[in-house]
Design brief:
With 351 residues, this protein is α/β, with parallel strands linked by helices. It is 42% helix and 19% strand. The protein folds into two domains: 242 residues, Alpha-Beta Barrel (TIM Barrel); 91 residues, Sulfite Reductase Hemoprotein, domain 1 (2-Layer Sandwich). The two termini are 29 Å apart.
Length: 351
């Protein structure tokens, strides 16, 4: 069992983060925040897939004003992503935002920083300090130290600004597009502070490369007990980011809700269209919330044995297949009847 790093606990809306709270999955809308209808549809779709928190890009006053209406109807807490303009942060707080992603050192004069901090403090709004490897302060960038140390140094500088103003409702992220740099930065900051950490490999890439980079980076840290929220950054739909994040957590036993899906690789023994069958089973069982394990195995030689721990499983034969529960075969059916019968069995017992 993974021993989680001990951290402070904060709360964004109704979602607790850090300490013994479950690790939450976050994503970001890619709609125009000013388009309330489209933004809310995407948020609802993300929430239906298991997203716990969603971040909105606040590029201008109209986007900040749209937060008020989005907040009224959003099923999950909202975080405003703000750069440079402190007035946008103040307007989002006024309009009911649940959290801020903002670097206090990047929003100008000290008096403006204080305005944001005081408003966040009054309304109990957490602030995430978000450090990106590609946008560090110039003086830190020029230092002759490893990049991950520069990232941590930048984070500590921004943390000090908040702490000097008696504010510690903080979450931290340190993201790089380089997986190893990301891992090293989080390991180091985890030793220096006890604030909750938001994990991510930034600009990870398109669907396949992005999932692989994020799985290696986030998976390594999570296995070490580091991380309290995660985002898988993909050049793809936010829905896919959420699905990937949930799968990463499930693979480490850090999330119990929903199906744990396993399937074997194809080989010369496979006499059934395993790839099509596995994809269809996974797709048709997306709405199951119960923490059950479902296996789709290619042959009867190893299937029920290798997947005997599964709650439900299929083992392929020659144009036919076997349905098994906990390693025991309960039915033998032709390939054309196998899928519908298997889905019906699981849905009947678990919906």
């Amino acid at each position: 069992m993974i021993q989680r790093r001990k951290s402070k606990q904060i709360q964004i809306g109704n979602v607790k983060i850090g300490a013994d709270a479950p690790i939450s999955v976050q994503s970001m809308t890619n709609t125009d925040t000013r388009d309330v209808k489209s933004t809310l549809k995407q948020i609802r779709d993300m929430a239906d897939c298991g997203c716990d928190l969603v971040r909105l890009a606040i590029l201008n006053p109209d986007a900040a004003n749209a937060v008020k209406e989005i907040k009224k109807h959003s099923p999950i807490p909202l975080i405003a992503d703000i750069h440079f303009d402190y007035r946008l942060a103040l307007k989002c707080i006024e309009n009911g935002i649940d959290g801020l992603r903002i670097n206090p050192g990047n929003i100008g004069k000290e008096e403006n920083i204080k305005k944001v901090i005081n408003a966040a403090k009054t309304n109990n709004i957490p602030i995430r300090i978000g450090i990106n490897a590609g946008s560090l302060e110039k003086d830190i960038e020029l230092e002759d130290i490893p990049l991950y140390e520069k990232m941590v140094k930048s984070a500590l500088r921004h943390i000090k600004i908040l702490e000097d103003n008696d504010f510690n409702n903080i979450k931290i992220s340190l993201k790089s597009s380089d997986v190893y740099t990301t891992i090293q930065a989080y390991r180091l900051i985890a030793e220096k502070v006890d604030y909750p950490l938001h994990l991510g490999v930034t600009e990870a890439g398109t669907y396949t490369s992005g999932i692989i980079k994020s799985s290696v980076g986030l998976g390594t840290l999570l296995a070490e007990g580091i991380g309290d929220t995660i985002r898988v950054s993909l050049t793809d739909s936010p829905i896919e980011e959420v699905r990937a994040g949930i799968m990463i957590l499930k693979s480490l036993g850090l999330k119990q809700k929903g199906i744990n899906f396993i399937s074997c690789p194809t080989c010369g023994r496979t006499q059934i269209d395993l790839i099509k069958l596995a994809n269809e089973v996974e797709k048709r069982l997306e709405n199951i919330d119960k923490p059950i394990t479902v296996a789709v195995m290619g042959c009867a030689v190893n299937g029920p044995g290798e997947a005997k721990h599964a709650d439900y499983g299929i083992a392929g034969g020659i144009k036919e297949g076997y349905i098994f529960k906990k390693g025991q075969i309960i039915e033998r059916l032709s390939e054309d009847k196998l899928l519908d019968r298997f889905i019906n069995l699981i849905q009947t017992e678990n919906l």
